[in-house]
Structures are given as C-alpha cells and as structure tokens.
C-alpha cells in the first residue's frame, strides 16, 4: 500500500522524500543522535515542520480542484444505519442460567473464475512485480472465519467474522449486516442480535477488498474525467466479487449461529518474545505487544473445540513481490493466519483469529525459518504459522509434555530439519526449548459487548482524494467548506472477568495501549504529551482486536504525528488526520464512563 500511494503522489512527493532523506530522515541522524536529542533540536524540528507543510500543500493542490464524490453526505442529512450497540447493560458475574454457547464456521472467498477474470491482490503493487498485481495463482486459500457467541443470559447473540483481506470498510460491513438481519428476521425472529462484527486479518495477499489496488490508476483517471460531466463513477473494488463476499460471509454467520452448542471456555496468554515480530515502527514508538492470547471453547458434547487466537503482526510475507522472477506477488494466500488454522484443524480443532495492534509490526521469521530450503515466500508463512500453532497448543504444557505429544513434537522431522540447517551453514531454533508453560484459567460464563461511534476528521488530502475518486467505499460527511469527517465504530468486550478487549477500526500504534514512549513529551516528535488517555488508563489491562468493523488506516499518537519525516513516519501518509488517535481514545473514555 505504501508503494502504491507513493507512486500516486508522483514526482512531487518523491522530491520531498529525497529532501527529507538528505536532511531530516530518522535514518540520517539516528547514528549520531538518539530520538530525544533530535526532537529537542529546534532547528531540525522547524525544518521538518516546513517539509510537512510543503508535502500537505502539494497533496492539497492536487486534491483541491477535484470535485466531491456525489456520494458524500451533508452533515445535516447523515444517518447512521445498520449499527448494533451491543448486548445492553453490563453484568459483573454469571447468572444461574448462564452458560457459554459458541458455534463456528468458515467459507472460502476465492472465486471460481480467478484464472479467467482479472482479480487484483490488495496490499502490494511495486516495481518488483512490474506494477502488476493481477492474480495468477492461489497458494492456499482466502477465507472468512466466523464464530457465534452467547452467554445464554437473554441479552442476545454476537456474531464475529474475520476475513483474510487487507481491510473492509464500514460501508461494506453494513452490506453484510443487512443480509444477516434479513435472514434472522425471516428465519429466527425469536433471536436477538446483539452485534454483528467483521474484522480483517490484513493479509497483503488476498483479493483487494478496499479498492486501492484494483486497476487503480486507470479507474481513478476514468472517475476523474467522468465526474464533472455527471457520468457514472466506477467503484474501487470488483463489484461482483464484493457482492459474493457479502453473501458468503453472511451465510457463514448464519451457519455459525446454527452450529452453536453449550460448553466451557478457558483463557491463557503467553509472551512469546520479540523475536517472533519484526518491528518496523516509527523511531519514537517503544511498545510492541508480544503476547499470544488464546481462548479455548470446549463443547459439552465432546465435539471439536474451537481455538481463538489473538496475535498482533502483519501477514505481509506471502504477497511480497521480489526481483527473483519467482515471487511475483500475484498469488492469493491467507499468509501465516491460514497456516495456523491448517495446523490446528489437522489436530482436531476449529480456528478463529483476531489481529492486534499492528501499526508498523510485522511477523518475524527468524525463529521459524530455521535455515531451511524454501523457494516461495508462502513457504516462510507456512513455517511461521505452523510454529505459532504449536505454541498455541503447547502454551500450557511443560517441555516434557510437549515432547510426548505427537501433534507438537516429531523427533524425526526435527532431526531432518536440523541436518538441512547445518548443511546450509546456519542454526536451528527449536520452539519449545527451555519452555515455560503458562496457566490456563476457566472463563466465567458471561459476555459483555458495547459498541459506539466516533467522528474523526479527514484532513489528509490523499485520503480525501481517494474518497473523491470513489476508490474506497466510505460514507464521507461534509461538515463545511472543504471540511470532511467519517463516522467510525469502536467496541469493548469482556469475556467473564478474565479478558478485556478493545476493538479498534484500524492499525493502531501499540504505544496507545499502555502509554509507550511516543505518547510522552520526551519521546515524541512534537515534544508534547499525548492529549488523551491511553487504553490502560481507561480499561486497565486490555487486549486489542484490530481492523474491527472498519479499516481507516493507521492510528498514531497526535503528538508524534509528522508528515515531514516521511521515511520514519510513513504511517501518516495513510492516516485520516492528526486527531485520529485522540478522537478514538476519547471515544473509548466516553464509552467507559457510560458503563459505570
């Protein structure tokens, strides 16, 4: 996505980037000065701010003459529809009738005609693949995974779907909700729907669901030309594919509901260490969530258990084009998420996944590649996914128990791989060596969910331009001359007293969870403190489910926002505005206040 948008900005942005690299890039001064010293250097901060103004001015000049999309809505006419606010009043303990009820399902989203129709991958379009991202093959699958969840309290069932894709906008999610609501009204009128939620894994090798990669430049130029003459603007995504996606996800939600069974749930969390993550975040950001969270639902009838996994890392490897002529970035893959599921399925479990706070955080293959011979990028995703699956199943076991479990430990395979690693001149990392198990606890059978909407200004001219050209399916609200905003959803969940979760609508900087260095004056670009509470201040110890019910781009602390440091702060190019984080955090604070 970064590569595509840099290309769209054109030579003007390139010039700014070159100037920035020569004067103020974090890479240029990091060798001699730490971030704190650089922030305190008044002259450099002033120049960087000038660059930010220049960049925004260039983008604004390109954006300003482009007419508003006819789909933009005047503030007075805006109505929020197809929204669920949760299951009512929160409870703090299980009632006499409470019991966990869960059903799961999944569906493939790969179209039958992928070899004859032009589909495009969402995530990468780069010089290495000749700026061509048409789908040529399918490595594994692009799926939607679904669970239906209820605590039998009479407050309603909640549906959760996670789609293997780069992101899904709130408007597209509402199309799924309409189908689900219709099906339930017709077939299950006795059932109350508390919430209908759709997440994305943010894989960079799924068919484009946002509209920014589907024959983008010709489509943008066409829409630019036809708009002044009242012509029909083409949508960014492939309409037939998205219509099928709505139907498939809604159908899987209904199937998950029908598969609901009573049972018990347990919770476990393990810090798997920074080596499983590749931290490419901004220089000032200190925090990274290295926890792997597991919920395990076991049906009372002894049928297949469902494993719910939360891990915060971009699935970005399988779709990355390289200049080797083999890895062209034109192959559909669910990336490491698919392979976690494949392994868990082979061990007799159903699988659900939620990504986390992934701003600048990618998955690190160091411990899992193990110096093996691999030709394709998706093979690295497979090794990582399999290893994460083993960690997920083994996190509560001792090292001895792991070695006695054939699903987790195969001595013959390990010996073979160690020999291959030695032949390749490298080492081998055994995932369970010196293993320390964690405690698994029962989750009390009560579930709370609350959702709310937050208004976020859209001041980024590049994002405005994408909306004007009808590339991404957002409802943009016009709130004054050249002033725009969007309505986004946030959510808060409680699984008993064991797990608290914040649902955020984009890629959130992990510093916003517990107040990492970039939220502090001494560690931020501006030299000022973040002017809103962070999640820990609001809810205590929380886990993040990211890209929830929307995909609004990066969510970075307001005080560390800078368009001038374009190499170290690339996230700003894909952020709605400097106020995005404070709007969302203040929205969470208001939500918490309403729950008291």
Question: What does it look like?
Answer:
The protein is built from 17 helices and 23 strands. It has 596 residues and is an alpha/beta fold. It has a domain at 1-65. The strands form six sheets. Strands 2, 5, 6, 7, 9, 11, 12, 14 and 16 form a nine-stranded mixed sheet that branches. The chain starts with a helix and ends with a helix. The relative contact order is 0.15.
End-to-end separation in angstroms reads 41 Å
The largest β sheet comes out as: 9 strands, mixed
Q: Which structural category do the helix and sheet elements fall into?
A: alpha/beta
Q: Using DSSP, what is the number of strands?
A: 23
Our count of helices gives 17
Radius of gyration: 24 Å
Strand content: 15-25%
Short précis:
This protein is an alpha/beta fold. Helices cover 31% and strands 21% of the residues.
Question: How do the helices and strands line up, and which of them pair or pack?
Answer:
Elements: H1 2-9, H2 11-23, H3 26-30, H4 35-40, H5 42-63, E1 73-74, E2 100-108, E3 121-122, E4 137-138, E5 143-150, E6 157-163, H6 170-187, E7 193-200, E8 206-207, H7 216-226, H8 239-258, E9 261-271, E10 277-279, E11 291-299, E12 305-311, E13 331-332, H9 335-346, E14 349-355, E15 361-363, H10 366-369, H11 377-394, H12 399-403, H13 411-423, E16 441-442, E17 447-457, H14 461-468, E18 477-480, E19 483-495, E20 499-503, E21 507-508, H15 511-514, H16 535-539, E22 543-545, E23 554-555, H17 580-594
Parallel strand pairs: 1-18, 4-13, 6-7, 12-14, 20-22, 21-23
Antiparallel strand pairs: 2-5, 2-9, 3-8, 5-6, 9-11, 9-16, 10-15, 11-12, 17-19, 18-19, 19-20
